[in-house]
Amino acid sequence: MKKYVVELIGTFFLVLTVGCAVIGGAGNLAPVAIGSALMVMIFAGGHISGAHYNPAVTLGACLRGACSWADAPGYVIAQLVGGAAAAGIVGGVFGLSNADAATLSVGPTIIAEILGTFALVYVILNVATAKSNDGNSFYGLAIGFTVTAMAYALGGISGGAFNPAVALGAGMMNLVSMGDIWMHIVGNLVGGAIAAFVFLFVNGSE
Fold first, then answer.
1. What are 131-153's pLDDT values in tens digits?
2. Degrees (nearest 5) of the Cα angle 154, 43, 136?
3. Distance of CA 152 to the CA centre of its chain
C-alpha cells in the first residue's frame, strides 16, 4: 500500500504542476516547471515505489522485469486517481481550468506521443533499472530533463503528455479534448512497450 500512496502523491504533484504552469501563465517555462516537479518527486519516492508516476512507465518496467505484474493494477489506479485529483484541484479550488482545448491531428499526435514516451521510458529503464547504473545519483535529473526536452520538442504537436495520467488530467482541465486523449494513451503505451523491448535488446536482462 505504501508504494501506491507514493505513486498517487507523485502523480498528483506532476499533474498539478502541469495545470498550474500551463493554465496559470508560466508560458515557455512550463516544461521546466513540469520536468522539475517530476525530478523532485522521483528523488522523493524512488526508493519506495520506483517513482513511475506514469502507467506507460509501469508497463515498460513490467515488460523489462523491474516491476511485478501483480503490482501493476495498483500502480495504474493510484496514478490515475492522483492525476484526476490534481485536475480537480486546479479547476475546482484554483479555478484555473479555463483553457481552450488544443486542436490535435491524429497521426502527428500519436507519433509525437510514441516518440516522447519512448525517450522517457528508455531513459528511465537505463538510469533507474540497469545494474551498471545501480546506485547513481543522477537518475532523477536525467528523467526530469527528458520530460522537459520532449515537452519543448513535441509539446506543440501533441500537447506533450507522454503519460496517460497526465492525459487524463489534461482532458479534465480542458487542455485537450477528453475525446482526444485516446491518442495520447495509445501513443504512450506503444512508446513505453517499444522502449522496454529496445532496452532488453541492448542491455539483455541486466
1. 999 989 999 999 999 999 999 99
2. 95
3. 15
Nearest to 155 by CA among 35, 13, 7: 35
Residue whose cell numbers read 486542436 = 103
Closest CA to 4 of 74, 56, 67, 51: 74
Q: Which residues pair with 51 in a beta bridge?
A: none
What is the CB neighbour count within 10 angstroms for residue 69? 11
User: Residues 43-101: pLDDT tens digits?
Assistant: 999 999 999 999 999 999 999 999 999 999 999 999 999 999 999 999 888 887 667 78
Choose among 118, 119, 111, 167: nearest CA to 142. 119
What would you measure as the largest C-alpha separation in the chain, in angstroms? 48
With contact defined as beta carbons under 8 Å apart, do 161 and 188 qualify? yes
Q: What is the CA radius of gyration of the chain?
A: 15
User: What nine digits make up the cell of 70?
Assistant: 501483480
Domains of the chain: 2-203 (1.20.1080.10)
SS3 52: coil
Amino acid letter for position 58: T
pTM of the model: 0.94
Q: What is the pLDDT of residue 173?
A: 93
**Which residues have CB under 8 Å from 60's CB, separation 6+?**
121, 124, 125, 192, 193, 195, 196, 199
